Amino acid sequence: RRGAGGGAPPAGGGEEEEDDLGYRLFPDRKKKPQGFLARSLFTFHNRCQLMLRMSLETNPYAQLLLAAMKQSGCTVFNDRHFSCENCDGCVSGGFDSATSQIVLCQNNIRQQSHMNRVVAHELIHAFDHCRAHVDWFKNVKHLACSEIRAANLSGDCTLMNEIARFKFGLKAHHQTCVRDRAIRSILAVRKVSRETAEKAVDEVFDACFNDLEPFGRIPHNKTDAKRAYKDFLNRDRYNANL
Fold this sequence. Notes:
Blueprint: H1 36-40, H2 43-58, H3 60-71, H4 78-81, E1 82-85, E2 93-96, E3 101-105, H5 112-131, H6 140-153, H7 159-164, H8 173-189, H9 194-209, H10 222-241
Parallel strand pairs: 1-3
Antiparallel strand pairs: 2-3
């Protein structure tokens, strides 16, 4: 089971193609929305909504990304841009560019710390979608770049998370984690070979790993993320006074 985030499930969802571009992982995307009563009785859904609200209100990774999205003209609204749904067992979340919605896998996210990472991971995809013309479905390099950035900046590869996965690396361990998780994310949502995924990641790795917007630094823990958020707010005020 992947720790945080899947890539973008696809636009559309109409004609069945040989590669469904990841929608098979998010079966609720094709269902009619449940009624309020059915959803309110569903414990997973309630828990997901509560953890999402907690993440958006208290997690500095999410707070910084929400502020950056707003500054870029893509204000995020809880009810509109997040959807708690049941997903395939291998994913925790995804970004649906067709609806500009972040899907949170309510059956797979059971802890607040996990929710925090998934929300941050998918908000980075949403931020990239807002600021750049990302071709999620036809250009695997674009997908690879956003997956590298999401793994690098969301907390996916913090030392504590890697220790929890029983991975104890030495030199350049963070970069190795980012590369591995980006490749895994691509393979989870696209029917491409491992060789294709690895090639795409390697070709864009340096440029995308060093693109630290909007954090300005790699946030290795919550303290780093708080500093980055504070710096972002101060930078915004400084620019407003120019």
